[in-house]
Amino acid sequence: MELLKVQDLSLQYRTKSGPFLALDRVSISVPKGGSLGIVGESGCGKTTLGMSIMGLLPENASVVGGQILFEGRDILRLNPEEMRRYRWKDVSMVFQSAMNSLNPVKRVGDQIKEVIHAHEPAISKEELQERVEALFKLVNLPVKRMRDYPHQYSGGMRQRAVIAMALALNPKLVIADEATTALDVIVQDQILKETKILQKDFGLSILFISHDIAVVFDVCEEIVVMYAGQVAEVGKKDQILKNPAHPYTRALLSSYPKLSLEKERLRPIPGDPKKSLMFKIGCRFVERCPYAEKSCSDATAQWIELEEGHKILCRRNLYGTSNS
Amino acid sequence: MSLWRFVLRRIFQVGISFFIILSLLFFLLRLSPGDPYSKYIDSDMTAQEIELIRTQMGLDKPLWWQYLIYLANFVKGDMGISFYYGKPVGEVIRGKVLNTILLFTTSVIFSALVGIFLGRIAAWRHGSFVDSFLTFSSLVTHTLFLPWLGLLLIWLFGYKFELFPLSSMYTPEIWIDPEISFIRKLFDVLHHMFLPFLTLFLLHFGSYLLLMRNTMIGVLREDYILTAKAKGLKDKDIINKHAVPNASLPVITSVGLSLAFSINGGALTETVFSWPGLGRELVVAVSQNDYPLAQAAFLLIAIVVLVANVLVDLLYAYLDPRIRYE
Amino acid sequence: MNELPKEGKGPIKEAWELFKESSLGKIGLLILCLFALMALFSFVPPLIDPMYHPMKGVDPSISVSSPPSLRHWLGTDFMGRDILSQLLAGARVAFLVGISSAFMSIILGTFLGMIAGYWGRVIDTILMRLADIIMVLPTLLVILVLAALFKGLSIWSIVIIIAIFRWPGVSRVIRAQTLSLKNRPFVEAAKAVGAGHMRILFRHLLPNVVPLAFLYMTFRVTSAIVIEAALAFLGFGDPTTVSWGMMLQWVWKTGHMFKAPYWLLPPGICISLITLSFYMIGRAMEQVLDPRLRRDWEG
What we know:
The structure holds 3 protein chains of 3 kinds. Chain A is built from 11 helices and 12 strands. Chain A has helices spanning 46-54, 80-86, 98-101, 108-119, 125-138, 155-167, 185-202, 213-219, 237-242, 247-252, 294-298; strands at 4-15, 18-30, 35-39, 61-70, 73-74, 91-94, 173-177, 205-210, 222-227, 230-236, 303-307, 310-313. Helices cover 79% and strands 0% of the residues of chain B. Chain B has 15 helices and no strands. In chain B, helix 12 (235-273) packs antiparallel against helix 14 (291-319). Chain C is an all-alpha fold. In chain C, helix 4 (83-119) packs across helix 9 (197-215) and helix 7 (155-182) runs antiparallel to helix 10 (217-234). The radius of gyration of chain C is 23 Å and the shape is elongated. Classes of the chains: A alpha/beta, B mainly alpha, C mainly alpha. The interface between B and C is large, with 49 and 43 residues.
C-alpha cells in the first residue's frame, strides 16, 4: 500500500474576483520510504498541494473533488481532533524561510519540546529533555544551544533546528516546501546530504516541493512536474532526465529553445475573470506550448504512458516512445 | 549583559532630555515679559524673603552664573517659595508625587492589561460582531472629552446614585481617627480613587485594545503561527503561547510612547476630582500666578513621565529576547 | 525626462474612491459636515435677534439657568444666555482652532521635514532630536506653564503653540518621503541642469510631498480642538471667545453640574463627537495612505 495517495484532488480558492481553481484533478503517490519531488513554477499549485496534505488550507479554500489517502484513511474526512493528532505525528512539514517558522520569542529547544508534549502529554521533563538533545545531535546542532532564541542562530542552524523539529515525533512522511531556497549553496548542499542520510536511517518518506529542479533531482527518486494546477508529467528521476516528454518539462530542464518561462511567471490573475481557471477543456499549457495545435485546446488532454512509471498529460506524444 | 547597557543608555538619554527641559525653562523665564525676578516675588512677601530670593537667583550676576545657580538650586531641591501656600515649594510638592503616581500608574497598567486581553479576543474573532462591537466601543470611549467624562461620572455615580464620593482623595474624619484600622483607611482611599481611575481607564483602554487587535491580526498571518498549527497544537495554545506574546510587545512600546499624552489626562482628571496630585497643583499654581510652584510641579511631572518611560523600556527589553540577548 | 505629477487629479480621485469604501469614513464625514453646518449657522441667530448672541445675549426675562423651552431650545446658562447659540459659536471656534493649528503644523512640519530629509546628517540629527524632545513633552502642561509665564494667552497664541507642538509627527513622514525621493532620477536631472537647492526643494520635491502632508492633517486637527477645550475648561482659554470647553467650565464652576444636564451634556457631546468623526475619517484615511506610501510618485 502506498503511504500517501492523492487521487484526483481538485481545490479552489474564493477570491474577490471569483473562484480560482488551484488544483485540477491532481494525483500523486508516495511509497513507504520513498522520496517524491514536486517541481513547478510559483503558482502552479505545489504549495497548495503540500498544505492540503497537512490540512493547513486557508479559510477561503475548498476541496471540490478527490481524496487524500494517508495509509488508506481519507485526510479530508478527519474531524478536528483526529486532524490535530495526525498533524506532525504522521506527517510533518519543513517550511520555506525557516526563520519565520520559529517563534522569535520562544527558545528553540522549548518549541521542539512543545510539540512532543502536545502529542504525548504524559511525558516526563527528563525524557523531554533527552529526546530534544537526541534530536539536536541528529541534525548536528550543539546541544548547549537549545536554550537560545531563533535570532541567535545562523540561517543554516535554523534550518537544522526546523528539521529536528520535523522529526521530533518520528513521522512517516516529511513534506519539505522550498526548504533550502533561502540558504546559500554550500549550506544547502550540506543539508541535502544530511537529509538523505536521515531518510535512509529512519525509513522516512519525503515529499520535496521546490521550483529548483537541481535540488529536487538531487534528493528524490521520483518526480512530478506540475503546471497551472495540473500534473504535467510523472516519472522516475532517470526516466525524466533521459526523456523529458512533456513540452513544459523540456522547458524546465532547459534542453530546448527557451520559452522564456523564467520571466513569464504564471500568476493567478484575480483581476480578470475571463481568465479565471476553472475546469477547462483542453490543455492548460496551450498558450505557451510551441507545439500546440487547435485540437489541444478543444479536447481534454490524455494521460499517455510512455514506459513503466512514466507518463505525461498531453495529446501529442512528441518525444517519448509510446506503448499505445 | 546587554540588558544593563540598554538600561544605562536609556537613563543617559532620559537624563539629557530632562536637562534640556530644565534649561529650556530657564530661558523661557527670561524671555517672558517682565523681569524674571518679578515672577518669583509677590507683594505679600516680607522684605527678608524678597532679599533671600534676590541672592538665591543671583540676579546681579552674569547670565551663565545665574544658570548655574538655577541648576544647583534644583539639585538641592530648593525651588523657591510658593505664594499661594506661603511655604517653600518643596514642602508643598513633596506629598503630591505619590498621589499622582498612585492614580496614574494604576490606570495605565489596568488599561494596558484590559486592552491586551480584549484586543486578543477581538483579533481571534476578527470580523465577527464581537470584534466590531469592541472596535467601535474603543473608538467611542477613546474620543470622549476627558474632563467631561469625569464630570459625567461624578454626576451619575457620585450624585445621582450616591455610590462614590464626589471629590478628593480621602475622608478627613476617617484618616484623623487613630481608632480606625489601616485597612479601612486604605479602602477609603480606594473608594475615592475609583471614579478618577475609571475616567482615565475608560479613555485609554480603547487605544491599547485597537493596537493589540491590529497587531495580533498581523501576527496570526505569520509563518510561525502556521507552523504551530501544523504541529497539531490546540487553538487555545496557539493564541496564548504564540500569538499573544508576540503581539503584546508593540503594545507595551506604545504604552511608553503615550505616557506623555496620558499625563495630560492625568492632570485634567486630578483637577476635576480634586485629587491632590501634581497635575492639580500645577493647574492651581497657574491660576494663582504662582510661578515657582508651577515650575516645580511641571518639572516633577516631567521626571515622573521620564522615569516611567525608562521603566516601560526596561520591561520591553526584558520581554523581547531579541533585545535581551543581543 | 520624467514629468512631475501635477498636484494630482489622479491620486486624489483614487484616494476618494478608496475612502468611500469605508463606512466608518463616510459616517465620520457626515458628522463632520453637520458640525460644519453648525459653524456656518452660528452667524445667523445674533443677526436675527441680539438676544441670541452667545456672549452678550442675555435674555431679560431669565436670569438663572433654565431648562429647554420653546424660546431657548437647549435652555439657558446661569446668566440667562441661550445655550444653543453658544453651542453653534463653539462649533465655529472648534473649526477655527483645529484647522488653523493643523494647517500651521503641517506647514512647519513639511518644511522642517523636507530640510531634514534633504540635507541630512547634522541638520537632520539636530531636527530629529528636537522632534523627539518635543514629542515627549505633555503639550497641555507646557502650555499651562507658558500661561503662567505670559499671564494669559489669546486664542491665537494657543493656536500657534499647539502648532509648534504638533509638527514633529508630520515632519517624520515628510522626511521619510523626502529621503526616498531625494535620489530619484528627476532630482538628479534637476541638479544636472544646475538647479539650486531652493529650487529643487520647492519646485520639485514639494509638490510630491504636499499631498501626503495634507492627508496627515486629519490627525492633527482633533488634538488641537481637544487641547483648546481642555485649556478653556481649566479656565485658561481666551475669555472673549465662547468655546465648548469654556461652556463646560461655566457649568462646572457655577455649580450647575448636578442641576443642569441640558447645559452639561451638549458641549461635552459635541467635543467628543467631533473628535470621533475625525478619528473615523482618520481610520478610513489609513486605508488610503498605506498603499500610497509604497507607490511610485514620479510620472
